[in-house]
DNA sequence: CTTTGGCACTCGAACAGACCGAGTGCCAGT
DNA sequence: ACTGGCACTCGGTCTGTTCGAGTGCCAAAG
């Protein structure tokens, strides 16, 4: 269903039901169709790519490819266009992705540097990705579960209201207001205890330690402590709270003109944080690019689109996922290269901060 | 250029260049066109609205209205459609907006209650507004300048890195990482001093007091204190940092089918935070609804659209603005009522939290 | 067995002309 | 000042025709 390109070998193995020339024809069809958006015929093919054969031969191959479901014709007596299956084969048989040029690397760097906080970084990232790929970009906030607790703060707002703040190593900040009686003294004690237990721990471990802390609290802290810890556990456990930033919407115009039919469902899907999270959720491995093409997609609204995604984070640890959504008819090689490059860069960038 | 509907009197004054019946005809044209999206002719008009006159009479009035620039015909021998100027007159001559029904009030309440923090509130608000108006909704984050400082926190990340956090009464959180040597002791002293100076103050005043604090710092705190205060001043002064949430994009499909021509520029404008901020910036007064129609709009990309916006906050104090963007051909009365209702509700809601 | 050139066939896109009817402007009559 | 009547305009739709890109198939050639 999904492909990790880094893991596939070169295109020069055999023994499949598609021989080398047919594959070449498929490749030619895909690239031509992607750039022209129009069904491509046998004659145009031999002219633009120098396959060493005649149109008639290509026609035979095309018939075979159609038989096997890799291409199709919109109506009789028109050229062929690739099917989802065709794109899939095309993507699977890509060689390794070529890295971005030095200039592009520099552009990415320039775009990201100067970011001031996590929101800012992700906001810039999504714009960067959208601009580079000319598609709609999606970036997920780093999940809580992969982060460690950096600091816990409890602030008195009034004698009966407390603000509880949780800060993670990835720069995320969560806050809740809490109704509970307390004194300044209790709060500072509580602060010390909470931080001692949780700081530096992975969120899951921190949650466990905080939970077990409840029973050990000095009686003076029992009330405010229990309430605070309950809130903290709520924050730590609520991993669906992970948010998603979307950008590059104007690129949706490339979908063609059947607006109501084509674009509306995509827009709707893009507004559903839950859908996007699930979509990205299955593409977490760092340093490999996942592609899901058309019907391979679990959501009906997105079955006319393809997803190109990659996890980002450190080499050891993937924090979250980012990617793009575009028409199935897209330039996969360069898009995949761009997504991978941006993911790597953001990962490094966040690891430093 | 903009109108505050609450301030205009009823429609029954005279002495203008449009008499009462012509106005009635204009009203009929606008409502019919809004609901049908098609040019409306004299015959259809007298049938659907019971004006007590014949089509021919209406035609005369229409000719006059066209002469004065309130309506136009797309081509000879077609019906009439309102111009921007026509919509403007229509809106200016609206009676007072009718409040939402009890059921709608309850729906709004249900939608908003249960929000957990500021992000959440605004996120829900934008969805609510989009759903209620069936347009693209825009909500601005409360500006810093209208908020008071709730708490300042300085957290040690390592011996030479400090996280500075600013929390406002409206629930906004700003954070920066700072490179400076320090000890735990210095930080807790600093925390006390900073909060003593700033908490409860309006951001402008807090900034002033923090600035004057620099010279009074104990020498031990001089280095870390100066750095922190500089950062805080930066955060407090940076009012352009106000962000904007956009939602209801799928409603853009109502713009009609000329996708590339119509919708692309709008999408582009909606991605530009700066544009949106400036757009909303001029509509800050609480409890009055500002309408900007088509060409009245300062941004070329939005000159096929109308903006309906209102400030929100308390009666005394407007924090920020929210509104919707839609085609000039929209149902102004109910849209304006909805925007006003949501703005009021959110204002109250935030004032409580 | 694979490749090629030739040929008849299909079908959508583009164009042109005819028709229809909604809507207008004007004018004479009440 | 309003109304009914009338000639006129012009965009939308429908129909028929043409054009050409592209196909599938077949028989001949390598």
Output the number of helix runs of chain A. 12
Largest sheet composition of chain A: 5 strands, antiparallel
How many separate domains make up the residues of chain A?
3
Backbone shape of chain A:
elongated
Question: Largest interface, with Cβ-Cβ < 8 Å?
Answer: A-B, 33 and 33 residues
Gyration radius from CA atoms of chain A, angstroms: 26 Å
Descriptive overview:
The structure is a homodimer of 353-residue chains. By secondary structure, chain A is α+β, with helices and mostly antiparallel strands. Chain A has 3 domains: 5-92, Orthogonal Bundle (Arc Repressor Mutant, subunit A), CATH 1.10.10; 102-143 and 241-352, GAF domain (Beta-Lactamase, 2-Layer Sandwich); 149-236, Enolase-like, domain 1 (2-Layer Sandwich), CATH 3.30.390. Chain A is built from 12 helices and 10 strands. Chain A has helices at 20-36, 42-48, 55-67, 84-92, 102-112, 118-133, 184-198, 203-213, 222-237, 259-271, 273-281, 332-352; strands at residues 71-72, 81-82, 136-140, 149-158, 161-168, 173-179, 244-247, 289-293, 305-313, 318-327. In chain A, the strands form 3 sheets. A 5-stranded antiparallel β-sheet of chain A has the order 7-3-10-9-8. Chain A has a 3-stranded antiparallel β-sheet with strand order 4-5-6. In chain A, strands 1-2 form a two-stranded antiparallel sheet. The two termini of chain A are 35 Å apart. Mean pLDDT of chain A is 88; it is low at 6-16. Chain B binds a DNA duplex (30 and 30 nucleotides) through helix 2 and helix 3.
